[in-house]
Amino acid sequence: MKIKHRLKSIAISALLTSSLLLSPLQSEAQWFKKKRPSRESMEQEIETLRFRVDSLKREIEQNSIPFSDTLSENDTINPGGLSFFETEDLLDPSANTDSLLNLWYVQRSLTLDEGISVNLETENLTSDTPDSILIKRLKAINSFIPLPYNNIIKNHIIYYTQRIPNKIDLILGLSSYYLPIFEEIFDQYDMPKELKAMAIIESALNPVATSRVNARGIWQFMYRTARQYNLEINTYVDERLDPVASSHAAAKYLKDAYTIFGDWSLAIASYNCGAGNVNKAIRRAGGSRDFWTIYPYLPRETRGYVPSFVAALYTLAYYKDHGITPRAIAMPAHVDTFEIRRPLHFGQISELIGITKEEIADLNPQYVKEIIPGTENKTYLLKLPFNYTAQFVDHEKEIYSFKDSVFFNPIVLNDAKSVQTQSTTYHTVRRGETLGRIAQRYGVRLSDLQRWNGVKSNIRVGQRLTIHKNGTPASTSKVSSAASTEKSTSKAGEYLMYTVKKGDTLWEISRKFEGVSLNDIMKLNGFTKKSKIMPGKKIKIKPL
To answer: DSSP 3-state assignment of 541?
Structure first.
């Protein structure tokens, strides 16, 4: 009954919103009949009504009422962005609850009930902790990234520490395992270690998280971005699910974003909504590069992303002061890593040394088919708990042939070989083309083409599509114009060169070449943030 009443209440609000937003002339006649309200009050009322409509959508989804789940062309917010209020979609009720991570992922009971009734942007949450104490604590955090304090950040801190303690304690439990890994990687790139908190916002530290639009992993990479940052994705391996490999990719992305914006808050925001949306907000704010100045012009979800980041850092530092105790998570204290150069099945390891396949998968989530496709030319890593190290070393020679006729067959092996020769090419959409026609041209399935690029049906002229094929790449170049690239020889060696075209930026050029980042191009050519590139200029892309 409560749900019905709530749905009715929100539905009424939705109707009011539709009359206000969809019929402006009629609404204006009614709204301004007596006295015209101020612009500020109008904007606040519209935002409140929009929030209620969003609440209605979530209520419908939660109660299994069919609802559209499509993204518009302008919906450029990081499609993989998952708040830990939404991670119930990631639960698999059939999963084995005895595995290390599934003890948390399956047994936790995350619901949307607590998240739908609070607008952290407009409401004023109350806390027993005075503002002066919260400000003092934020200042005491040794952070290279500025941690400001205002009402929005205060709301997020209160929400994290007081409204959802049953979720935070579980995330804190996983933090002790994952955050040291992230800190070490960010340190390698000479970046602020505080960036580790972004993974909490992205996936609630779930390495196998998958969003509705197929962004995957602890850092929620979409397919195209993952390939741009050199993560391997094929039939057997998805490095988006590898906490270490994906963290390196996240670090490279954020480093590129910082090179563009020169501000960590803007770099963090761009991770959520893309550099294009941040640049658009900067232009609308008159060129300011201050996050709180461009705040009103950012997508709604992104406006809450940086405050969530600050609140997550605060919670990591002061959870004890709020009476929160991290949940004990059964993760191995010590892990050993082995190099695998032959195909190996989780089942072979499990049956021979006694570890469960679920335990192997917990530490090696990137192997999506329980097969490590090692070859003489391609080495893959296997992580095992320290207490299984001796057994694996003792049986390593025989483990590859153990029941190989059961776990492998010619079809599987041929598939594994074809994965190793898979090539990637890119196609720039022309006027009149459709996804179906493009898929037919390259001899790939339409569903694969959609999955690789995170699209459903709508494509636009000039859009660049990623295409994966076995064998020799198609004639289409990895950049939009084959004539734009050439080989150059110098005393330092051979380089792939690119001729700058009108409208090019270094960021856009880097995205045309797999495994090449903005920083790579800048270092190779001696560019700085103030460097300008002119059409016709030839720049180095990478050594050959």
So the answer is: strand
pTM value? 0.62
Check if the beta carbon of residue 116 is closer than 8 Å to that of residue 88: no
Other C-beta atoms within 10 Å of 371: how many?
A: 22
The verdict on 188 and 236 lying in the same domain is yes
Bridge partners of residue 542, in order along the sequence = 496
Planar angle of CA 18, 19, 20, nearest 5 degrees:
90
Rounded distance, CA 80 to CA 87, Å?
A: 11
User: How far is it, in rounded angstroms, from Cα 279 to Cα 209?
Assistant: 29
pLDDT in tens, 130-170: 999 999 999 999 999 999 999 999 999 999 999 887 789 99
Give the span between the Cα atoms of 265 and 259, in whole angstroms: 12
365 lies in a domain? Answer: yes
Kindly state whether residues 451 and 526 are assigned to the same domain.
no
Q: Which residues of the chain register pLDDT less than 70?
A: 1-117, 409-424, 469-493, 544
Q: Express each pLDDT in 264-290 by its tens digit.
A: 999 999 999 999 999 999 999 999 999
Structural domain harbouring 517: 483-543
| Positive or negative torsion for Cα 260, 190, 148, 299 | positive
Closest by alpha carbon to 464, among 427, 502, 498, 512?
A: 427
Question: DSSP secondary-structure letter at 338?
Answer: E
Nearest to 323 by CA among 90, 166, 181: 166
* Whether 357 and 278 share a structural domain: no
Give the distance, in angstroms, between the CA of residue 70 and the centroid of all CA atoms in the same chain: 18
What is the per-residue burial (b if ≥16 Cβ within 10 Å, else e) of 110-129?
bebeebbebbbbeeeeeeeb
Helix 346-353 and helix 389-399: axis angle, to 10°?
Answer: 120
Task: Return the amino acid letter for 397.
Answer: K
511, two tokens: 């995205």
Shared domain for 458 and 513, answered yes or no, is: no
β partners of residue 464: 428
- Cβ proximity of 159 and 118 under 8 Å: yes
d(CA 57, CA 62): 9
Q: Which two tokens stand for residue 541?
A: 């892309």
In sequence order, what are the beta bridge partners of 538? 499
